[in-house]
From TrEMBL:
Pfam families: Hydantoinase_B. PANTHER family: 5-OXOPROLINASE RELATED, HYPOTHETICAL 5-OXOPROLINASE (EUROFUNG)-RELATED. It comes from Roseomonas haemaphysalidis. Residues 11-528 form the Hydantoinase B/oxoprolinase domain. This is Hydantoinase B/oxoprolinase family protein. InterPro entries: Hydantoinase_B, Oxoprolinase-like.
Length: 591
């Protein structure tokens, strides 16, 4: 160790300055994308990320997103790094060609090398979800898709800019494949500008500290993250094999329940092996998740690094695992050309299954979260086509020290504001509220989902929707109960009411129809009868829990806006027995 310290060029003080500088550069890149992109999914939803890499393409600083894989590798396989020049820019969205670094085709990656004094010192990346890139339906995502060619144009790793000269013909082909080319053009320019800004800032950092010191600083950040995550793995997982199984409801094509089976083994010689090979086979429908081998380590790293301001998210998380075993032809490693457009559903269950591994090992990872809901409303209004792509927040699982978070879409993304929706699209929002009683009961309550109710103002429209967890709700832990499911219903409470299939497309709507979407909640943690009555009262008064449900689930009687202490004592005298996990019913092991 002393020899390693002696060879370090970047001292601890300078390391923190460099860490702050590169994080600031990353934040500035993201701010530029947000302020200049044209499509709502980027500008309003915030579905974009940036990352910085060392000179060899190892991620040194990434966004707090647990789905990154090897971003630079796909480009390096086609364009050797030593052949790159200042002013180059590379682009791809090829899921299978990138081995899951991109996991559905709407996501576009722009990558550029950074040079200082003729030496390559770093790479910078901008990534964003484009609204429409062609394919079977507007939005390029549909539950009806049965192969990836129906999900839009596929861009293999391509040199978009060569030493400052833009390949405009390639961009023209891309724009021609979009139903909304002006939005695609604006989003492309925003990403290109963000990457150019990132190369400028990283070159400035290299000039300030020197290429050698910068390289050593990025190396130290990577090593620090890796060692921190490995130490937390040692503290959490005893020697042996730990298993967990989670489920999705199906693929919308009749598959039925699909299982994600993970096993994490710690060997006697301190190796950590994540085995996903027993996961069910790939699906006909677009719920397949082409999981890059880096994803489990990145997700576990984010969990273990949570709350530590001295750490950054980088490739140290994935490198903390010694091996990830995947089976080709499975739901998390499908064969080309299986569709991937709705992979976010399975991805969310993968993240919950990793939390489950921590839980069975004795850790206090959050209970399961619901998978964020996707809806795509396409149609014609005033003679013009429109595409309303909306991702709607859900409830997240209760933690070992706090309730689950309410109404979360995914990490840093946001729910569309009411004013934006009504100005931008031919709809009127008649209700926007918390989904009462959707959070799983527990000592710590699961987060609640959302209710959005729209009045359709367009002459005609077709709806695609994705909701999971109806048949297999997000599990509760340590005695907590599972979250409650969501649903989609048209014209509720009328003689024209119809409940839509949770994963479906081609649902026709006409002017005046009411579309109600209720999203699911997260699992609870701890016995519900251990929740303080005052906290249950606050939930009832705040609209999170109904009074009848407070008595049924928490054993708390509410009368006239206050806790009835005597009635509560009587209810809680009959304390139900619990087991370790709950998904509709209690069990020690979920399968």
């Amino acid at each position: 160790m002393n020899d390693v310290i002696a060879t370090r060029l970047c001292n601890p003080v300078t390391l923190e300055i460099v860490r702050g500088a590169v994080r600031a550069a990353q934040a500035e890149m993201e701010a530029l994308i947000e302020r200049t992109a044209m499509s709502a999914f980027i500008r309003e939803k915030k579905d974009f990320y940036t990352a910085l890499f060392d000179a060899d393409g190892v991620m040194a600083v990434g966004s707090n997103v647990p789905v990154f894989g090897d971003i630079c590798g796909p480009v390096f396989r086609e364009f050797p790094p030593d052949s790159m020049q200042p002013g180059d820019l590379y682009w791809y969205n090829d899921c299978y060609g990138s081995r899951g670094a991109v996991s559905h085709s709407n996501d576009q990656v722009f990558l550029a090398p950074v040079f200082h004094a003729g030496r390559r010192v770093a790479f910078v990346m901008g990534w964003a979800h484009f609204a429409d890139i062609g394919g079977l339906r507007p939005g390029s995502i549909s539950p009806d898709a049965t192969d990836i060619f129906q999900e839009g144009i596929i861009i293999p790793p391509t040199k978009l800019i060569a030493a400052g000269v833009v390949n405009t013909a390639t961009l023209s082909i891309f724009y021609r494949n979009s139903r909304f080319p002006r939005a695609a053009q604006g989003d492309t320019r925003a990403l290109m500008a963000s990457v150019e800004l990132g190369t400028t800032r990283m070159a400035e950092i290299a000039a300030r500290f020197g290429a050698e010191v910068l390289a050593d600083a990025l190396r130290q950040l990577f090593e620090r993250t890796r060692e921190t995550v490995r130490e937390r793995l040692r503290q959490t997982f005893a020697v042996g094999t730990h298993r967990f199984t989670d489920r999705i409801d199906g693929d919308g094509h009749g598959s039925g329940t699909l299982r994600i089976r993970f096993a994490l083994t710690r060997t006697a010689d301190d190796r950590f092996i994540l085995d996903a090979s027993e996961t069910d086979d790939q699906s006909v429908g677009p719920v397949n998740f082409l999981m890059n081998p880096d994803v489990p380590g990145m997700a576990l790293g984010l969990y273990f690094l949570g709350g530590d301001a001295t750490q950054v998210v980088n490739a140290g998380g994935p490198r903390a695992l010694d091996e990830v075993i995947l089976r080709e032809g499975s739901l998390v490693q499908p064969r080309f050309p299986a569709p991937l457009g709705m992979r976010g559903l399975t991805m969310m269950r993968v993240l919950a299954a990793l939390n489950g591994l921590v839980s069975v090992a004795g850790g206090e990872a959050p209970a399961a979260h619901a998978a964020y809901v996707i809806m795509l409303l396409r149609g014609t209004a005033n003679g013009k086509p429109f595409l309303m792509s909306d991702g709607i927040g859900v409830g997240y699982g209760a933690r070992g020290f706090a309730d689950g978070i309410d109404a979360v879409y995914f990490v840093a993304q946001e729910n569309y504001p009411v004013e934006f929706l009504e100005l931008e699209y031919p709809i009127r929002l008649t209700e926007y509220a918390m989904h009462r009683d959707s959070g799983g009961p527990g000592r710590w309550r699961g987060g609640c989902g959302i209710v959005r109710q729209y009045e359709v103002m367009a002459e005609e429209a077709v709806l695609a929707v994705r909701i999971d967890g109806v048949e297999n709700p997000p599990w509760g832990a340590a005695g907590g109960q599972s979250g409650r499911p969501g649903r989609v219903v048209v014209n509720p409470g009328t003689d024209r009411e119809r409940v839509l299939r949770p994963l479906s497309d081609g649902n026709k709507l006409v002017k005046g129809d009411i579309l109600r979407i209720e999203t699911g909640g997260g699992g609870g943690r701890g016995h519900p009868f251990d929740r303080p009555p005052e906290a249950v009262l606050a939930d009832v008064l705040g609209g999170m829990v109904g009074a009848a449900e407070a008595a049924r689930d928490y054993g708390v009687a509410i009368a006239d806006g206050a806790v009835d202490a005597a009635a509560t004592d009587a209810l809680r005298a009959n304390r139900p027995a619990t087991l370790e996990f709950h998904r509709g019913s209690y069990a020690h092991v979920l399968d």
